[in-house]
Design a protein that fits this description.
The protein is mainly β. Helices cover about 0% and strands about 50% of the residues. The protein contains no helices and eleven strands. It has strands at about 5, 10-15, 20-25, 30-40, 45-50, 60, 70-75, 80-85, 90-100, 115, 120-125. The strands form two sheets. Strands 2, 4, 5, 6, 9, 10 and 11 form a seven-stranded mixed beta sheet that branches. It has a four-stranded antiparallel beta sheet with strand order 1-3-8-7, with no helix packed on it. The radius of gyration is 13 Å and the shape is globular.
Length: about 130
């Protein structure tokens, strides 16, 4: 079982940047495809970005394309989400999630991910 801990959230003004980190322990991160999801108050948790186990493939929801970048460092057992040009509508709790390699990977579907972190709050002020 892999344990995930997010960090790097905070309060930022519109147009600012944050970099979220997701540190894994208990298992080698290279055994997992990874995703970032976010949940605003009163809404469902939604897909933001995903990255394949070796970093060779990345995916983004349309609203963050060109502004967010997902990356990973398997040697450090860490996944990152660089968020630039932040907007108030990016305000949410951000979660990282892990899906074991070896099964069909539906990267946008939160139900497919087996492990989740506790989340980190991102607030973008207007």
């Amino acid at each position: 079982q892999v344990h995930l801990v997010e960090s790097g959230g905070g309060l930022v003004q519109t147009g600012g940047s944050l970099r979220l980190s997701c540190a894994a322990s208990g298992h080698t991160l290279s055994n997992y495809n990874m995703g970032w999801f976010r949940q605003a108050p009163g809404t469902e948790r939604k897909f933001v970005a995903a990255i394949g186990w070796n970093g060779g493939s990345t995916y983004y929801t349309d609203s963050v394309k060109g502004r967010f970048a997902i990356s990973r460092d398997n040697a450090k057992n860490t996944v990152y989400l660089q968020m630039d040009s932040l907007k108030p509508e990016d305000t949410a709790v951000y979660y990282c999630a892990a899906d074991p390699v070896g099964t069909m990977w539906f990267y946008e579907e939160r139900g497919r991910y087996d492990y989740w972190g506790q989340g980190t709050q991102v607030t973008v002020s207007s």
